[in-house]
Write a structure and sequence with these properties.
Peroxisomal Thiolase, Chain A, domain 1, 2 domains, nine-stranded mixed β-sheet, 11 strands, 33% helix, globular
C-alpha cells in the first residue's frame, strides 16, 4: 500500500518561532506562548479560533495539558506527540491530516523544548524499548561511524572528507550569522573548526549541532480557505514518514554510508509532490545536520548528489547559500540549534520565510522555484525514523 499524497489540500497560513538559545530566564511554557502568539497574530486569529492543537515535545511536558495549561485552552482537544528528533514534524503531520480529513477547519502544531537548564550535557533520552542487545553509545559516537565508512567505500582520503565536513560546519555557521533567531550567530573559520576538541572518532566539537531551548508553531487550514488569512500561504505538497525497525545496525550488510529510512522517505515524498529532479526543482532544503558527516550522507540519500560524490559537491559550493541548491540557509541544527521538539517546525519556518521572500540577508536567489523540502530524522544510523515534507508557494 502507498501513502496517499495531500496534493495542495492543506495550507500553512501563519507561523511563529522563538530564537533558539540558552533561555535560562524563560520556561517552556513562556517559549510556547511566544511562538503561538506570533503565529496567531500573523493570521489575525485568537486562541479560540483554533479547533485543535498538537504539541510536540520530547522531554518538556507530558500530555496535552503541557500546552493547554499555559495557553489557558478550555474545551479544546490538545494532543502531545513524540517521535525523537522528528517530534515537531510529527505535530505538523497530525495537524495537517486532521484538516485534510475534514475533522477540523483550523489546526495548530506547536513544538517546544527546554534543554539547557536540565543539568544534562546532551539529550535526555527515555529508555528505548529493545531486546537488551542495543549498544549504549552516545549520539556523537553513533554518527562518527559515517565518516570512516564513507571514506572506505568511496575511496575518499581522510583529508578530503575532513575538508567536506569542515565546509558543512563553516557554511551553516556563516548562514546562522545572518539569522537573528539562531543560537550561534558568529561565523567560524575553517581553521577553528578543524582545531576544535575531539568528541568521538573524527568528530570535533564544531562537527556537532547545538543543544538549545526554543519553540515554533504553525497554523494550517484547507487550501481553499487560506486566502481568508493570508495572500501568501504555503501549500503542503507532500508529507512522508518512515519508521525503521531498528535492525539496520545489527545487519552485517549495513555499511553506515546511507540512512535507508531517508531513502525510502524521500522516494515517497517525491512521488507525492511529483518531483523528478530535486536538485533542480527545489528552491532550498532544510536537512537534519545533527553532525557534519550526516549532512554529507543526506545529500546522496535525498537524491541531491550521486553516490560517492556529495563531498565533492560540498567543496564545490553546490549547497552554499548562493549555490545551485541552498541547504540549511538558516544555519541548520548546527548553528540555529536543536531543541528537539521544535526543530522540525523550525525547518518549516525557514521555508515559510524563504518562499515568501522574507528571509532578509540570507534570502536565497532560487526562491522563485517555489518548492522547499525539510528532512528531519531521529535515532541513529541504521536505527532511525525519518520525516520529509515538501511545501510550495503556489498551488497546482
Amino acid at each position: 500500500m502507498a501513502q496517499h499524497g495531500l496534493s495542495d489540500r492543506v495550507a500553512i497560513i501563519s507561523m511563529g518561532c522563538t530564537r533558539f538559545a540558552e533561555h535560562f530566564d524563560r520556561s517552556a511554557d513562556e517559549l510556547a506562548i511566544d511562538a503561538v502568539t506570533e503565529a496567531l497574530d500573523g493570521a489575525g486569529l485568537a486562541r479560540d479560533d483554533i479547533d485543535a492543537f498538537w504539541l510536540g515535545t520530547y522531554v518538556s511536558g507530558i500530555s496535552g495539558m503541557a500546552l493547554a495549561r499555559p495557553l489557558r485552552l478550555v474545551g479544546k482537544p490538545v494532543t502531545r506527540v513524540e517521535n525523537m528528533c522528528a517530534t515537531g514534524s510529527e505535530a505538523l503531520r497530525a495537524a495537517v491530516y486532521a484538516v485534510a480529513c475534514g475533522a477540523v477547519d483550523v489546526a495548530m502544531a506547536v513544538g517546544v523544548e527546554k534543554l539547557k537548564d536540565s543539568g544534562y550535557a546532551g539529550l535526555i533520552s527515555p529508555k528505548t524499548q529493545d531486546d537488551g542487545t542495543r549498544v549504549n553509545t552516545s549520539a556523537p559516537a553513533n554518527f562518527s561511524l559515517l565518516a570512516p565508512a564513507y571514506q572506505q567505500r568511496y575511496g575518499v582520503t581522510p583529508e578530503l572528507f575532513r575538508a567536506a565536513m569542515t565546509h558543512v560546519a563553516w557554511k551553516n555557521h556563516a548562514n546562522g550569522a545572518l539569522n537573528p533567531r539562531a543560537q550561534f550567530r558568529k561565523e567560524v573559520s575553517k581553521e577553528s573548526i578543524e582545531r576544535s576538541p575531539a568528541v568521538a572518532g573524527e568528530l570535533g566539537v564544531m562537527d556537532c549541532s547545538g543543544v538549545a531551548d526554543g519553540a515554533a508553531a504553525a497554523i494550517v487550514t484547507r487550501a481553499e480557505d487560506a486566502p481568508k488569512y493570508t495572500g501568501t500561504p504555503l501549500y503542503i505538497k507532500a508529507l512522508s514518514l518512515v519508521t525503521g525497525d531498528g535492525s539496520g545496525a545489527a545487519d552485517p550488510r549495513y555499511d553506515y554510508t546511507s540512512f535507508p529510512e531517508v531513502v525510502g522517505c524521500a522516494r515517497e515524498a517525491y512521488a507525492q509532490a511529483g518531483i523528478t529532479d530535486p536538485r533542480r526543482e527545489l528552491a532550498l532544503a532544510e536537512v537534519h545536520d545533527c553532525f557534519t558527516p550526516t549532512e554529507i550522507v543526506l545529500m546522496e540519500d535525498l537524491g541531491f548528489a550521486r553516490r560517492g560524490n556529495a563531498w565533492r559537491d560540498i567543496l564545490d559550493g553546490v549547497y552554499d547559500r548562493d549555490g545551485e541548491l541552498p541547504v540549511n540557509p538558516d544555519g541548520g541544527l548546527k548553528s540555529f540549534g536543536h531543541p528537539v521538539g521544535a526543530s522540525g517546525l523550525r525547518m518549516i519556518y525557514e521555508c515559510w520565510l524563504q518562499l515568501r521572500g522574507q528571509a532578509g540577508a540570507r534570502q536565497v536567489a532560487t526562491a522563485d522555484r517555489g518548492l522547499a523540502l525539510t528532512q528531519n530524522l531521529g535515532g541513529a544510523p541504521g536505527d532511525c525514523v525519518c520525516f520529509i515534507s515538501v511545501v510550495g508557494s503556489r498551488p497546482g
